[in-house]
Amino acid sequence: MLDCLIPGDAPALPLHLVTRGGLAGLLQRLPPSQAAFLRASGFTAKAQEWRLLPSLSATGGSGIDGAVAGLGDDAASHAASPWAYGGLPMALPEGTDWRLEGEAEAAPAVLGWCLGAYRYSRFKAPSRQPARLATPPGTETALAEARAICRGRDLINTPAGHLGPEELAAAIGDLAAAHGATFEVIEGAALAEGFPAVAAVGQGSPRAPRVAVLRWQGPDAAADAPLLALCGKGVCFDTGGLDLKPAASMLRMKKDMGGAATMIALAEMLMASGAPIRLLLLVGAVENSVSGAAFRPMDVIATRKGLTVEIGNTDAEGRLVLADLLAFAAEQAPALVLDAATLTGAARVALGPDLPALFSDDAQVAKTILRFGLDVHDPLWQLPLHRSYVSWLDSNVADINNVASKPMAGAVVAALFLRRFVPDDLRWAHVDLYAWNDQTRAGRPEGGEIQTARALSRAVTALLLHRDNP
């Protein structure tokens, strides 16, 4: 899948990565004619700036002897960021092979290169092939993360007509088979009994809802190793239900399973690393459709936990799916529960597309996740679980309403809804993310995106295994 890489010992041209501070030294080391060319071209080593180095051979050859790419002023920050390298595979000439030189950091470079080379190609061949990078040693984790993110991006980018609840569940089955995990699908009568809120959300679609369950134990994990539960919102397409979205808001709703894709990618990263934990992955795979069978505004539905929910708006369906998953996860006595969902537009209004919102009332959990998000350039921003707003979810006919009585703090209120389905003594964090790039940037092509998975994978290790935990 990573056809942008070649073996580390394969012939390749040198790609010099340099900061502004290191540029003078590089110019001294290069042949005088190439140094003169860089000076004449105005190269200053700013981030994302690059130049091809002309060949010194009198016979011509390819005409290229290498390339130079800038890292900007802050060497530590830029060299460690995958985005510093993400533009290069599509900028350097097609069909060329490169090896890292200079101030590059191998793992971020490999990750950024692979993410920048990614293009969704199921229905249309890419307009060009990426330049290829010789794989440096010691980058196995970066390669595993790149594979997981690219597979997750593929899931989000696949049109809903080709990725419904059945296909999403099957993708988890394929992942389970690849890593020796157990897998089951809960559907039909068993779903209606055990996950009634998931069943209610999906009952309006001819493509039946289901819950996909993956269980895995690390090869070095003891029987009593800490259990991590991951819950993902897998709404394969969201019309809004009978509270129908306008066309503009429905346009990208194939990405409404982005939370599930993120949890799937995170599970893949942890299994590929052989983490000594036990893992439970739950995905509620549904389609929120319009039909005579669809659930209605002001209906009252049951949940796995036993709480009744009045439906204030059928377009607030993701929290209903997660409610049942969280209740099931809590029953398994996990050490930590994480959930992810493209849950609210309010989170995007508050933080924009690049900063997923993090909610947790466990200070250590939140601090650890935020720290690793900054460390690996996969950031989140914490928003409060402000308990004064709990009363906004009061209902006259049920235990709770699925939407607030006030048009404010939508992301906070959604997180407070989920909090009702998590025991107070259970460590839990909720991520409200966008899962999409609105335009192409270095390493982040337009389309589906896996956000927070790299940060969460490291935070899990710290929290559950007490490694480097702040």
From TrEMBL:
<keyword id="KW-0645">Protease</keyword>
<keyword id="KW-0031">Aminopeptidase</keyword>
<dbReference type="InterPro" id="IPR048816">
    <property type="entry name" value="Peptidase_M17_N_1"/>
</dbReference>
<dbReference type="InterPro" id="IPR000819">
    <property type="entry name" value="Peptidase_M17_C"/>
</dbReference>
<dbReference type="GO" id="GO:0006508">
    <property type="term" value="P:proteolysis"/>
</dbReference>
<dbReference type="GO" id="GO:0005737">
    <property type="term" value="C:cytoplasm"/>
</dbReference>
<dbReference type="GO" id="GO:0030145">
    <property type="term" value="F:manganese ion binding"/>
</dbReference>
<dbReference type="InterPro" id="IPR043472">
    <property type="entry name" value="Macro_dom-like"/>
</dbReference>
<keyword id="KW-0464">Manganese</keyword>
<dbReference type="InterPro" id="IPR011356">
    <property type="entry name" value="Leucine_aapep/pepB"/>
</dbReference>
<protein>
    <submittedName>
        <fullName>Leucyl aminopeptidase</fullName>
    </submittedName>
</protein>
<feature type="domain" description="Cytosol aminopeptidase">
    <location>
        <begin position="313"/>
        <end position="320"/>
    </location>
</feature>
<dbReference type="GO" id="GO:0070006">
    <property type="term" value="F:metalloaminopeptidase activity"/>
</dbReference>
<keyword id="KW-0378">Hydrolase</keyword>
<dbReference type="Pfam" id="PF00883">
    <property type="entry name" value="Peptidase_M17"/>
</dbReference>
<comment type="similarity">
    <text>Belongs to the peptidase M17 family.</text>
</comment>
<dbReference type="Pfam" id="PF21337">
    <property type="entry name" value="Peptidase_M17_N_1"/>
</dbReference>
